[in-house]
Amino acid sequence: MATSSVHALLATVRRHLWRAEFMAALRLALWASAGLLLVAVAVHLVVSPVPARAAGLVLALPWAALFARAAARRPDDAACALWADRHLGGASAFTTLVELDRVTAGRAHAPARRSLEQWAASRVPACLQQLATLPATTRLPCPLLSTAVCAALAGFVLSLPGRLPDVLPAPAVAAAVAERPLSVADAAVPSALVNEVASALRAAERPGPPEPQGAGGAPTAGPAKAGDGPAPAAAPPAAVPGDLVAVHDVRPATPVDTLPTPRGGTTSGGGTGREAGDSADRRGDGGVSRGLQARQPVPRSELGPRPASAARQADTNQLGSYQDDASAAGATGRLASPAPAAATPPAVAESTRLSPTETTYVQTWLKASTRRP
Amino acid sequence: MAEGEHQAAMSNPTASDSAYADAHRQLQGLQSLLGGVIVGQGELVTHLVTALFAGGHVLIEGLPGLGKTHLAKALAAALGLRWARVQCTPDLMPADVTGAEIYVSAAGGASSFEFRPGPVFAQLVLVDEINRATPRTQAALLEAMQEQQVTHAGTTHRLPRPFCVLATQNPIELEGTYPLPEAQLDRFMFKLIVPFPARTALRALLDVSLDAEPSDTLQAVASPADVLRITALCRSVLLAERIKEAAVDLVMATQPAPDAAASDARRHIRYGASPRALQALIRAARVRALMAGRAHVDVADLDAIALPVLRHRILLRLESELDGMDADTTLATLVDGWRRRL
Predict the structure, then answer these.
(1) B296 to chain A: which residues are within 8 Å by CB?
(2) Whether the Cβ atoms of residue B154 and residue B194 lie closer than 8 Å to each other
(3) Is B241 an interface residue toward A (CB < 8 Å)?
(4) Tens digit of pLDDT for each residue in A287-331?
(5) Cβ(B149)–Cβ(B157) under 8 Å?
(6) Angle, helix B42-53 to helix B299-310, in steps of 10 degrees
(7) CA B90 to chain centre
(8) How many CB pairs under 8 A join A and B?
(9) CB-based contact A99:A112 (threshold 8 Å)
(10) Facing residues of B155 across strands?
(11) Considering CB atoms only, which of A82, A93, A112 is closest to B237?
(12) Count of alpha carbons within 13 Å of A347, Cβ hemisphere only?
């Protein structure tokens, strides 16, 4: 029968078109998988760890949807006939024949239909041959390669424990931690020392019995005034705060500007912000401040040769004095009645360095001494 | 041809399965015969045969001496048609075309008016330089073309079948001419442009028509009854819905769109093709399908006749004409877009 060969051709075309639908779905699914894998990698690195099971479930969804869609788009006879007319040289014969099959019998001229069937049947062998020689348009290598690369990348990244910050090396973490601002607890320590220094200064201003010697036996000296002359050469070297060997890392401390500066005058205790009364500041007894336990500064006399330093250091072996009306330029170190020694800085352990707290203490003490008129 | 023969041919369409093959064979033979007489004008011959068997009329435009008259004579001779020639001049009267009544004195003293048919009563009428005739004469001729009859003094005279008018126009020497209005141009199924023949065709023409007129000795390959039979057979050629939609799309593509994009050729059109153009497309496509040996129409048949059917039915905007656009260029762009959308 003429129409049987035409129906066979249409069935072959239907298989060809349906296969093309599935290949297109496969190509699209591969690209979608590659994209989803990249998204999973990004989410795993930036937001939160992605379980492999969840990633697999999300990957399966587009595959299922696309293949179900391809399965549902089965080409019908009209679509197959139209494709054969357009691509296999059917000259609208197959379309016309399929349409005639749908219309009620008798409307079409019988001889014309028979002539059409004969013409269509005569074209079937050539159409089948042309269909067999059509080049395949799969275009799968590119999406396959992309999906393979993305799958390898995702397999590696998803096997990592956590987010990107969690797997960074330790120095980076330490550097990050070091850049953080000081906590309140850290800031509280220098302020305690500041108060201690301030009270010690006030005690030094008031006339009274000399302060007991520090642990190193070195007599304490007041803070040197700016413009004071060099210390007498006969005076034995004293433990100068500036000469204390730092044995600890310097830590940032409370800015000195915020420290209560002692005012000029003999009665430095009044108006300095801390009502210490007339009693001497005994907190420094024993030569050890409250915050500097186990970190005893080493007296200068016990140290080795003093390193050359351009900075002028206070001579703790020589008693210093404070005069209210003495100008800084004119003063040349004239000593009045011996003033009570200032609080002895904690002794420096020979094998230790100054801690940041200690360094803050020394800096505060120096600054307070320079601010006195 | 007698009226009875015509009625028999029209009421008894072929019931033979070989009718389409026979028609295809006859059409192929006619084309090859005319191609041997008119050298280098194969496409012109094909279009002319198509229009004749589709029951339409043709307007031919070409320079003098390209064989237009020779072609009409050869066609009439090949089909055994009775043909007539009308040379239009400004003083041509309608009665010179349609016919007139003359006073005839019969024997015995009885006299009466007798209608003498004009040249339009032939089966194939060649109207040379129709744009030279006055509008009144043009109207009389075109009425006959449309109605297939002539009414004179209250009496209707039917024109013979088949009936086909081949009108010619000269694209030069337009001074003193009367261009056909659009409404009358629409009655022609095809407008054909006769190109200048190629060098090889010119050389072959010397061997064919130098010393003799081939159409004078041409043997007929078909009869007027065959023409009617094939014309009726063309009406039974199958037409799919897709082909009808494509023909409608083609006509719609020629409709004006002044606000179209710069790349759209429709912005050049002032008036597009009419529904009569759609009918002409389908009728001519059926004949082309039969010529190709098919009993069904393909979009390629529509594509082959698109330009001859549409080029005289669209009117371009004045601005586009001043910019150098012509109907053929615009239509070529539109048809190309239509073809890609199929």
Answers:
(1) 91-93, 96, 112, 116, 119
(2) no
(3) yes
(4) 545 544 445 555 555 555 555 444 455 555 555 555 554 444 444
(5) yes
(6) 90
(7) 23
(8) 62
(9) no
(10) B152
(11) A112
(12) 21
B22 vs B25: CA distance, rounded Å: 5
C-alpha distances in Å from residue A302, one per residue of A101, A238, A299, A351: 119, 9, 6, 12
Task: Tokens for A122, please give them.
Answer: 């005569």
Who contacts A306 (Cβ-Cβ below 8 Å, separation ≥6)? Answer: A237, A243, A300
Selecting from B14, B17, B242 the residue whose C-beta is nearest the C-beta of A114 gives: B17
B216-to-B37, B70, B84, B227 alpha-carbon distances in Å = 11, 10, 14, 21
Length of chain A: 373
Is B296 within 8 Å of A114 when comparing Cβ atoms?
no
B20 and A92 in contact by Cβ < 8 A? Answer: no
In the numeric block, the tokens 């220098």 are attached to A190
Closest by CA to B222, choosing from B84, B304, B123, is B123
Give strand pairing partners of B156. Answer: B151
Residue A93 forms contact with B (CB below 8 Å): yes
A 97-126: CB under 8 A from B: 99-100, 108-109, 111-116, 119
Q: Which of residues 12-41 of B touch A (CB under 8 A)?
A: 13-17, 19-21
Residues in chain B: 342
- Whether A296 and A346 have beta carbons less than 8 Å apart is answered as yes
* Chain B environment of A123 (Cβ under 8 Å): none
> Looking at beta carbons, which residues of chain B come within 8 Å of A119?
293-296
Q: Do A111 and B21 touch (CB under 8 A)?
A: no
Q: Which among A95, A111, A116 has CB closest to B242?
A: A95
* Predicted model pTM: 0.66
Taking the C-alpha atoms of residue A362 and residue A38, their distance in angstroms, rounded to an integer, is 57
Q: Do B238 and A112 touch (CB under 8 A)?
A: yes
Q: What does the pLDDT profile of chain B (342 residues) look like in tens digits?
A: 444 444 444 444 444 668 999 999 999 999 999 988 888 889 999 999 999 999 999 999 998 888 888 899 999 999 999 999 999 999 999 999 999 888 888 777 788 888 899 999 999 999 999 999 999 999 988 888 988 999 888 889 999 999 999 999 988 777 788 888 888 899 999 999 998 888 888 888 888 777 777 777 788 899 999 999 999 999 999 999 999 999 999 999 999 987 877 778 888 999 999 999 999 999 999 999 999 999 999 999 999 999 999 999 999 999 999 999 999 999 999 999 999 998
